[in-house]
Amino acid sequence: MTASELVARIAARELSALEATDECLARIASLDGELGAFLHVFADSAREQARAVDAGQRTGPLAGLPVAVKDNMCTRGQPTTCGSRILESFVPPYEATAVARLQAAGAVVLGKTNLDEFAMGSSTENSAYQVTRNPWDVSRVPGGSSGGSAAAVAAGMAPLALGSDTGGSIRQPAAFCGVTGLKPTYGRISRYGLVAFASSLDQIGPMACSARDCALALEVLAGPDPQDTTSSVEPVAAYTSLLESGVGGLKLGVPRSFLGDLAAPMARVFEEACQVLVGLGARLVTVELPNLGAALPAYYIVAPAEASSNLARYDGTRYGFRAPDAGDVLTMFKRSRSRGFGAEVKRRIMVGTYVLSAGYYDAYYLKAQKVRTVLSRDFEKAFQEVDLIVMPTTPSTAFKIGEKSSDPLEMYLSDIYTVALNLVGLPGLVVPSAPVEGLPTGLQLIGRAFDEGRLLAAGHAFQQATDFHLRRPERTSVSQG
Known about the structure:
The protein has 481 residues and is α/β, with parallel strands linked by helices. The protein has one domain: Amidase signature (AS) enzymes (Alpha-Beta Complex), CATH 3.90.1300. It is built from 16 helices and eleven strands. Strands 1-3-2-4-6-5-10-11-9-7-8 form an eleven-stranded mixed beta sheet, with helices on both faces. The longest helix is centred in the last third of the chain and has 22 residues, at 361-382.
């Protein structure tokens, strides 16, 4: 059942909030031992919140809806680990704005989902606690870094989940797991309480079964926040009321020169998805994004640079893990960080520190920032000709667990179609498209800044004409509920 359907049934008293919550908790208990989507399950507090909805004490547009939250968003009085040993005992004294807005809307928080450590990864293999598995094939990754949230939605353990997207971390796992994922415009949703990876790139967004569900969530999540000075004051649209706008008459840009190396099966399903939109009245136009190939190397300079700065605070002094056998302060710093951080986080901290260092700042970091400016101009020019841009989300379907772990560069190439949007701050929506060899794929729709309404309407139109978003893993253990 989709989030929208569940909210409607609870509002009509056809189903109680407690029944919906118990169903999700039962599926978590049954399935998550194998999938590893959740790091923390808040069964008691979830049932308490659900009972309050049923008693009329909690109301709102999401009243009674069970939701999951990626474990890099602060939850007051509940663990927030970011998938890292260095925060394994951290319990925040405050709530992330996005989580607070869900709760104010009546949602029921089921628990916190697994992620690549500090959101640094494309497979959810880099968590310090467990590997998350793809519900469609448990030998494969769910994508990352929001792999826990994607797997939870795909397996029916939660109808809605929050993820964060720094270089594709909502969109890539959405494609791998066959769910819908929205990376909003930078500043559309407050980042207050989101543990920072790369502050100029990070953005919170919803993951669910459908574009309608994402629209419902975005109405609650979007809007300015005085606690986040980068949040936008741009008016929040009634996104659900815009869903029936369709794509008739829209010009959709395809950057074909950038897609020349796409493998034949992925190219085929991408073209099939584009033709669905054409059948709904859209027109395809070839657009040029001449510097798109520079996005990936620029991203892997900017993101580690910001990460090295943001993660400097984790030194064993104020909170989090502290090495117990350290003598002097400097040794304590070194041992706490060495033991508290995993290999991928250390790699990115070292890269980031290097590109910010004297003698290399101009050659790397400054040049990468110039690439961001050039990319922004490319997109601005393209959007003078088209209404939306369509691209694949990933160059392949979900890969095998361990397949790319020994080759970081190969892993980074998983993000080739997603990182540009974070560099330029534009919104992107991924909707499930036709499978390849039984595994999900995703169509990526890209819009102008703060044009999420048109983006969601296009995704909804695609989903009204297809059933890929309704398909669920056929494995017996996952299909039971």
